[in-house]
């Protein structure tokens, strides 16, 4: 029990520090200090900093993609599936609000962390996109939805969702809004995103 607890503390400390400072600016010494253990223990559990980062990232992405990969299998309409995709990704960002800025920074600097992130995404994305495209093609014939490439559909969703979280700090500070009001605005934005994306699928 204590072993699992310490492993979880190390993961939590690593996630917080990586998101705050970036992969290259965090050492295993800092992670150990924040987790309340020695550096040797960090290396004992996770070997290297890249492997530790991969574990942190993998845990977060696995939760999201396990839900996403189930969506094409369901019997819902394409519009209902799109709503679920938006909900799942939006919830991921709510749980990890610093993630977009972190990844953009790592991508800009082309760090080892971004390479790990890219490979993790590729391990899931191929099957998800392929399965989603099959759903789109089928419902285009049966339900008359607008023809769209799965990549374009997901690109639209990611762009709209991510921008909301990049802009969120301005919403709260510039307009001096209370936290409850900020949450209401975020919920409103999610509803608007669903309307925008679903409207793009309908043939006028």
Automatic annotation (TrEMBL):
One of its GO terms (molecular function) is DNA binding. InterPro entries: Homeodomain-like_sf, HTH-type_TetR-like_transc_reg, HTH_TetR, Tet_transcr_reg_TetR-rel_C_sf. It comes from the Bacteria. Residues 4-64 form the HTH tetR-type domain. SUPFAM superfamilies: Homeodomain-like, Tetracyclin repressor-like, C-terminal domain. Residues 27-46 bind DNA. Keywords: DNA-binding. PANTHER family: HTH-TYPE TRANSCRIPTIONAL REPRESSOR SCO4008, TRANSCRIPTIONAL REPRESSOR. This is TetR/AcrR family transcriptional regulator. The lineage of its organism: Bacteria, Pseudomonadati, Bacteroidota, Bacteroidia, Bacteroidales.
């Amino acid at each position: 029990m204590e072993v699992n607890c310490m492993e979880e503390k190390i993961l939590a400390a690593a996630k917080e520090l990586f998101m705050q400072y970036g992969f290259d600016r965090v050492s295993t010494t800092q992670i150990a200090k924040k987790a309340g253990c020695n550096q040797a223990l960090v290396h004992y559990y996770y070997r290297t900093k890249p492997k530790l980062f991969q574990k942190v990232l993998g845990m977060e992405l696995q939760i999201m993609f396990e839900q996403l990969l189930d969506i094409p299998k369901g019997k819902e309409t394409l519009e209902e599936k799109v709503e679920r995709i938006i909900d799942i990704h939006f919830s991921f960002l709510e749980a990890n609000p610093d993630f977009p800025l972190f990844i953009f920074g790592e991508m800009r600097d082309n760090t080892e962390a971004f390479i790990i992130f890219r490979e993790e995404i590729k391990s899931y994305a191929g099957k998800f996109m392929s399965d989603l495209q099959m759903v789109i093609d089928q419902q285009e014939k049966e339900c008359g939805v607008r023809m769209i490439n799965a990549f374009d559909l997901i690109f639209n969703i990611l762009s709209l969702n991510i921008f909301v979280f990049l802009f969120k700090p301005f919403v709260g500070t510039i307009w001096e809004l209370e936290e409850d009001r900020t949450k209401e605005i975020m919920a409103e934005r999610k509803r608007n995103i669903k309307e925008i994306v679903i409207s793009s699928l309908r043939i006028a």
